[in-house]
Design brief:
The chain is α/β, with parallel strands linked by helices. 28% of the residues lie in helices and 20% in strands. Helix 4 crosses helix 5 and helix 8 runs parallel beside helix 10. One of its GO terms (biological process) is oligosaccharide catabolic process.
């Protein structure tokens, strides 16, 4: 099995497309509705690709594709024909925009040691690669809740080699898996997607510890880190970090930390708008539950351009008009504008071009080591590679001095050259 390491790829021309890619995770049902039934669909997503190109991400990470009724094992192929055509139109249009397409694929560790199960997984992956898919994140599970004690070796290298051998002509395809800390299936694919940061409080010491552990594990196993700070299984950052203006400031700060790290980065759809969880009263359980709702695109009332229908699959709050894509594109101070600046700097660095304000971005994100700096209590600072971007985060209640360097970008305005509480900044070491 080929595993990518720093030694395997000493120059950028040899790196696979996914090496430092920013993925944008999309639940298709909640993104954009094209046929007025109140449920997001593939054509709705295709119609909004211009926004994703404008945002500056590298790849679409599609979740919920199985819900659309398309795949290699559909019972009625005629029923799936129109959906499959929409999917192929989507991948073609995404590629025309310079975007890659990745999918979530479920896989049972308990079965994958069997040749027939391996063949079935390869068949599934080839079904999608034939339709333009560029990569996969395998959602590994154990049927019936089998524990590590019952399957201590997880998915072993021999099994992964067999699957890789069957996909030998697809060497540029991303194959990653979601791993838990100490999970035994670590290191068998290209990327280990880890959600430890999605379960970490907004506290510099904890954040540094999680980053250090993940980087060390990826070095040990020879895989690329995959960073996730939000997802369907965890509350959105704004809500998790305290809600309101405080949660929004902290979430914006974490976006700078996330996008400065080496590896594959996953941005959850709506993070770039600082969308919170929508809290609903669950009468059955007597609890308040957080939920994701359709993407707010434009206008002054629900469903904010998500659908031509006045109602959508889930209700969108009445007070979200300031959070729409339209409203935030018009504001230089919005979360969306911040994300666009971050991603523009990363892409400019990758292309070896100059970013805004005549700052030479070449080399800022090229190297994969992280050098930690000394920092005040409640703060962290690290440099990406030698002479690369410096990231400083302040989770304390006091403003603090910045590390030496030329400020490039900050999540909130600096105060007398210092970093305010609940904020982060990028600096150039040059």
């Amino acid at each position: 099995m080929r595993r990518w390491t720093e030694q395997d790829a000493p120059d950028r021309e040899r790196l696979p497309w996914w090496w430092d890619a920013t993925h944008y995770a999309i639940d298709i049902r909640l993104f954009a509705d094209s046929d007025g039934d109140g449920i997001g669909d593939l054509d709705g997503l295709r119609n909004r690709l211009g926004y994703l190109e404008l945002l500056g991400i590298d790849a679409l990470w599609l979740t919920g594709v199985a819900m659309t009724g398309v795949g290699p094992n559909v019972g009625d192929p005629r029923q799936a024909a129109a959906i499959l055509e929409s999917f192929e139109l989507l991948t073609a249009a995404a590629h025309d925009c310079g975007l890659r397409v990745t999918l979530d694929i479920g896989a049972d560790i308990s079965d994958l040691r069997q040749p027939r199960a391996q063949q079935e997984l390869v068949r599934t992956l080839r079904f999608w690669t034939d339709r333009g898919v560029d990569g996969f994140r395998l959602a590994l599970s154990r049927r019936g809740g089998v524990t590590r004690e019952h399957a201590p070796n997880g998915l072993d290298l021999e099994t992964s080699r067999a699957i890789r051998a069957a996909l030998a002509d697809e060497s540029d395809r991303l194959i990653g898996s979601l791993v838990e800390e100490q999970q035994s299936s670590r290191g068998v694919w290209d990327v280990d997607f880890n959600r430890s940061l999605a379960e970490t409080e907004f506290e510099a010491g904890s954040i540094r510890e999680k980053i250090s552990k993940e980087l060390a594990a990826c070095r040990e196993f020879g895989t690329r880190p995959g960073w996730i700070v939000s997802g369907r299984s965890t509350p959105r950052q704004v809500t998790r970090y305290g809600g309101g203006a405080l949660g929004r400031a902290r979430a914006q700060a974490m976006s700078l930390v996330l996008l400065a790290l080496p590896g594959v980065v996953c941005v959850d759809s709506g993070e770039e708008l600082s969308l919170p969880e929508v809290v609903e009263d669950d009468n059955r359980a007597g609890e308040l539950l957080g939920a994701r709702v359709p993407m707010p695109w434009e206008g002054g009332k629900p469903p904010y351009g998500f659908s031509d229908s006045p109602t959508s699959c889930l209700p969108v709050p009445e007070d979200w008009w300031e959070l729409t894509v339209e409203a935030q594109l018009e504001s230089a101070e919005s979360t969306l504008s911040l994300y666009r600046q971050e991603l523009e700097l990363k892409r400019a660095a990758r292309a070896g071009a100059e970013a805004e304000e005549s700052i030479d971005a070449e080399g800022l994100f090229d190297e994969d080591t992280v050098e930690w700096y000394g920092a005040p209590n409640g703060c962290l600072a690290f440099r990406r590679g030698v002479g690369g971007v410096i990231c400083a985060l302040n989770t304390s209640e006091n403003q603090v001095p910045l590390p030496p360097g030329e400020p490039l970008l900050s999540s909130t305005p600096l105060v007398d050259g210092q970093l305010p509480p609940n904020s982060a900044a990028w600096l150039s070491a040059n």
